[in-house]
């Protein structure tokens, strides 16, 4: 019997038979450049199939077959030895079953613990009154008025923001929903989406965590009391939430993103871990924020400029710059492809309105210099050839280069 029919008889692939041959589990005869599987091979294959059902490893099966080949199973002692092997395997499986039973019990306890934590989470928070002096019309830069509000304590949960020029925004469940939500200019997918988490690669997560920790170390060294810290386009990734409880409790935090599920999930996560923080959540797909100009002290770039650059031709800082103080700092991370990469061409195909230099090595430098910002510190943190299909423009096999940076106005130091 040749290898094809032999494999078919035992319902396995020919490559599996070849692997068994390589390990010495099967030893067929060779005739005229073809392997022929005789009755002995069939007996050995029957043993292999049976022992696999008993959860024997291939190494253990090889030991079993080797004993059979040496002794030919010619007397009672030989069979007694095989019986002992089976008994030892049974004891091993009994131990494994007990271990699995203990693990299942521990998992049940952990599930109960997590469910209890969820049910004892703090109450939902609204917009702190502290943010009211910062809420300005992005069109004419006049203070926004409030109407039809629902408040509790010093927080706003529902209401309307409006300006005499016609600008309007809604407050729903403590989130500001602006009218600047172009469905064609934002990514409908977000990092907390369970389906996205299934396809994003560990290499991308690891590089992002490394970048996040780099940003954290810089923020911790700063005096953040009464400072306004903004992280936009949080849908692709978000940094601040990982360590926000370790930062200054007196700071003002603003998160802006284009997907409501992401904002709600982020809001819930932060409220459960540190409900006393002053945070404003904005549903906005651009950088035309309903915030007073020259109010922002720090911008956190969690690939935010890259994300904005997918849907807008102007450089992000040309829009964001008026919101920043003269002494503002930008701390964040970005990634790029070398010139000529197919991923750049694919990005332009998927995002025809993208900034021409987005995802190129000079994009962040050009973007910052458009607002007279310069990089003072920079660190290359790694690369990946497979960020996952979450990054839809990435061409498999090409290298994405990741780096972190600190920028501010002044003479160039990097």
Structure write-up:
The strands form two sheets. Strands 3, 4, 5, 6, 7, 8, 9, 10, 11, 12, 13 and 14 form a twelve-stranded mixed β-sheet that branches. Strands 1-2 form a two-stranded antiparallel ribbon. It is 38% helix and 22% strand. It has 414 residues and is of the alpha/beta class. It has helices at residues 3-9, 14-23, 39-53, 58-71, 76-119, 194-199, 202-220, 260-273, 304-311, 316-320, 342-350, 363-369; strands at residues 29-31, 34-36, 127-128, 145-152, 155-162, 168-172, 175-178, 228-231, 252-257, 278-283, 296-302, 324-336, 373-384, 400-409.
Write the layout of secondary structure elements.
Elements: H1 3-9, H2 14-23, E1 29-31, E2 34-36, H3 39-53, H4 58-71, H5 76-119, E3 127-128, E4 145-152, E5 155-162, E6 168-172, E7 175-178, H6 194-199, H7 202-220, E8 228-231, E9 252-257, H8 260-273, E10 278-283, E11 296-302, H9 304-311, H10 316-320, E12 324-336, H11 342-350, H12 363-369, E13 373-384, E14 400-409
Parallel strand pairs: 7-10, 8-9, 8-11, 9-10, 11-12
Antiparallel strand pairs: 1-2, 3-5, 4-5, 5-6, 6-7, 12-14, 13-14
């Amino acid at each position: 019997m040749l290898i094809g029919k032999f494999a078919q008889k035992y319902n396995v692939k020919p490559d599996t038979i070849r692997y068994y041959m390589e390990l010495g589990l099967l030893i067929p005869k060779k005739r005229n450049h073809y392997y022929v599987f005789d009755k002995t091979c069939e007996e050995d294959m029957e043993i292999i199939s049976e022992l696999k059902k008993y959860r024997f490893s291939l190494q253990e099966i090889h030991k079993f077959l080797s004993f059979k080949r040496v002794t030919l199973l010619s007397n009672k002692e030989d069979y007694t030895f095989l019986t002992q092997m089976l008994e030892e395997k049974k004891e091993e499986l009994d131990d494994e079953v007990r271990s699995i039973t203990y693990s299942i019990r521990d998992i049940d306890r952990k599930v109960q613990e997590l469910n209890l934590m969820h049910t004892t989470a703090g109450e939902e928070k609204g917009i702190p009154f502290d943010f009211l002096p910062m809420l300005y019309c992005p069109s004419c830069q006049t203070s926004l008025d409030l109407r039809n509000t629902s408040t509790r304590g010093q927080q706003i949960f529902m209401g309307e923001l409006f300006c005499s020029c016609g600008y309007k925004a809604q407050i729903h469940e403590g989130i500001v929903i602006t009218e600047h939500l172009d469905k064609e200019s934002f990514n409908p997918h977000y990092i907390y989406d369970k389906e996205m988490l299934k396809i994003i690669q560990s290499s991308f997560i690891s590089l992002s965590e490394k970048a996040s920790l780099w940003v954290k170390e810089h923020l911790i060294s700063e005096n953040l009391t009464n400072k306004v810290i903004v992280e936009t386009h949080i849908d692709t990734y978000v940094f601040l939430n990982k360590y926000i409880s370790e930062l200054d409790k007196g700071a003002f935090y603003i998160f802006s993103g284009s997907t409501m599920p992401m904002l709600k999930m982020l809001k819930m996560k932060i409220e459960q871990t540190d409900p006393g923080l002053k945070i404003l959540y904005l549903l906005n797909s651009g950088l035309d924020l309903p915030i007073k100009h020259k109010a922002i002290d720090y911008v956190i770039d969690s690939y935010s400029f890259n994300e904005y650059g997918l849907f807008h031709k102007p450089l992000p800082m040309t829009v964001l710059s008026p919101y920043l103080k003269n002494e503002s700092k930008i701390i964040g991370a970005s990634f790029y492809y070398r010139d000529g990469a197919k991923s750049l061409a694919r990005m332009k195909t998927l995002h025809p309105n993208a900034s021409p230099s987005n995802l190129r090595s000079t994009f962040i430098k050009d973007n910052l210099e458009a607002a007279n910002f310069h990089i003072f510190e920079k660190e290359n943190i790694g690369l990946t050839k497979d960020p996952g299909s979450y990054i839809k423009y990435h061409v498999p096999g090409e290298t994405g280069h990741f780096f972190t940076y600190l920028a501010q106005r002044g003479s160039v130091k990097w």
